[in-house]
Design goal:
Number of strands: 11
Shape: elongated
Strand content: 25-35%
Order of helices and strands: HEEEEEEEEEEHHE
Helix content: 25-40%
Largest sheet: 7 strands, antiparallel
Number of helices: 3
Number of domains: 1
Radius of gyration: 25 Å
Structural class: alpha+beta
């Protein structure tokens, strides 16, 4: 009888150990899945930005603007960037002109306060637009001050930093703001994109302790995944306006 009870006790201990192993494996699996999703999201977002920027054009009307975000001044202790530019893109079935006004910016997640998204919005220009329309980047050099585009979508969730640095010459000096009208109507030499994300579970924990600033920063420092890409504009002087369209 004693031997049977001892065997049952040993069996129960083994079952508990195996259960804990499986629970641990599930946690590791979930963590690994989140990490893969975060990394894929980051590189997909950067690839999309690269695609848009490699087709960018600029002059004194089609302005290329990099600046601090106009709506969100603080993203976990930093002022995120915003970029507005014109890109030569055209869908084969579209009747719009072969150009888009494109903007990237950071926005708080609507249904998850304390978490943030990288947004991409664009406007396609229709031939039917009036030539003096304030929405038209061909005619209004201040087009980038308009509201964010209606055609907007999320390209990255759980963002903890988004920063753009622009080089205007070969000496490597990086600037946080750029305006093509102040730089001979040309694109910059290059632009560095820095994007920082955390896994979804970490983002929710940070949001829960949003009032505890130091703890938020510590978690971001420990868990954030950081990504960077540099995009150059070798033909930045190849496009320039011959006429002034301002009226």
């Amino acid at each position: 009888m004693v031997e049977i009870l001892a065997s049952i006790a040993i069996l129960m201990i083994m079952v508990l150990i195996i259960a804990r192993i499986f629970i641990g494996l599930n946690a590791v699996w979930d963590s690994g899945t989140e990490t893969v999703e975060t990394v894929n999201t980051a590189w997909s977002a950067l690839s999309m930005m690269q695609f848009d920027l490699e087709q960018a054009v600029a002059d004194n009307t089609l302005r290329f603007i990099v600046r601090p975000d106009r709506q969100l001044a603080d993203l976990f202790g930093t002022h995120p960037s915003e970029i507005c530019f014109v890109s030569l893109q055209h869908h084969i079935n579209s009747t719009a002109r072969a150009v888009r006004e494109i903007m990237y910016w950071i926005s708080e997640t609507p249904d998850s306060p304390g978490t943030y998204q990288l947004m991409r919005g664009y406007r396609e220009l229709s031939d039917g637009l009036h030539t003096n329309s304030p929405e038209n980047c061909y005619w209004n050099p201040d087009w980038y001050t308009n509201d964010y585009p209606v055609h907007a979508g999320v390209i990255a969730d759980n963002v903890t930093a988004f920063y753009l640095s622009v080089a205007t010459n070969a000496n490597g000096e990086l600037l946080s703001a750029y305006d093509s009208t102040l730089n001979e109507g040309t694109l910059p030499c290059s632009i560095d994109i820095y994007l920082e994300l955390v896994d979804r579970s970490i983002a929710l924990k940070i949001a829960d302790m949003i009032q505890q600033t130091n703890k938020c920063y510590e978690m971001i420092e420990k868990y954030a995944r950081r990504f960077n890409v540099r995009i150059t504009f070798p033909n930045r002087t190849g496009y320039a306006a011959k006429y002034s369209y301002n009226q």
